[in-house]
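Intended use. Records like the one below are meant for learning the mapping from a protein sequence to its folded structure. Do not use them to infer anything beyond what is encoded.
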Amino acid sequence: MHIFDGFLKKNEKRIVGLDILRAIAILLVVYKHGRFLLPLHFHNDYLRYYINIDGVSIFFVLSGFLIGEILLKIINNSNFTIKDLLNFWIRRWFRTIPNYLIVLFAIILYQIIFFQNLGQFSFKYLFFLQNFISPHPGFFKEAWSLCVEEWFYILFPGICYLLHLFTKNKQNSILYSVLLFIIIPLLLRIIKYQLGIGIQTFDEEFRKIVVLRLDSIMYGVFASYIWINQKNIWIKYRFISLSLGIIMIALIKANPYNWLYFYKPFFFNIESITVLFLMPFFSQLKSTKIKFLDSLFIFISIISYSMYLLNLTFVQEQLIPITDKLIGMKGLPIEKTFLVNYLLYLFYTIFCSCLLYYFYENPMTRLRDKIKV
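Structure written out for the chain above:
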């Protein structure tokens, strides 16, 4: 097992429990996007037992928890000036935007080369506005969730800062902001649902619109607030909280009496609360005690952002069709075609994500330590 010692030593500061959640989230996303490459009967017979929680919902709560902890420490340990706010934004943007832009431009280039047009591309993509109040276009489909995160990074710290200017009370500014971000998106979903707008296309009209999903990330921030201010309670009741989370997962999977859909505007709240219950246990899990598993979860977690950006549009909709033409699979039985495509999908996703992370994402992320206001 010494083969993993160097890797684990290099990543010894990471919390394996959070890496496990992040790995589960990206694997759920990759499965959900890639299942269409498999025969329908294969999905019905063998892959119907996966966890029903949306991987993106796990990402949202986890992101809120990690970013919330960083932001709350900045607010509590500084005067929380505009300079602190700008430095926070700089660090976030160097972490997320470079990857997004290079994948976006690669997809645009493919569209121009093979179709001589830009398809559904809009300059709104450069400002994360393509699904701010309307359904996300068909171009670079997975970008919808990144828009939610980027606007959260802008709006939540900004509102905290403004409330701090008026209230002169850091804790109150945080709590008021949390309440605003939990209540307002839910109210907007309720109003839209009651008006009957987009109910038939719930996924596009509710799940993927920025102003309707900001509360999902806020549950993670609320978790970080408890972690920072009530650490004893967080640690003491982590196993009870884990049990509640597992029960919620079981209920979501079984969905007895169709309880999950009794009122759809609450659908995302249920998922977020479920993930919130898991956070205390996994945030305290330093290791699985199995070096291979620790290394695997950390590795998947490290490249998870690249995997998310690449797996659907770039890999499944662009690389796979090119490969099909190059290797000429028309003569193969349909079952083998499905299998080859799915294996290629997994290989391309992991291989390209490694390249993107190690040669671009990681170097760009390191630059943020050199740029400060």
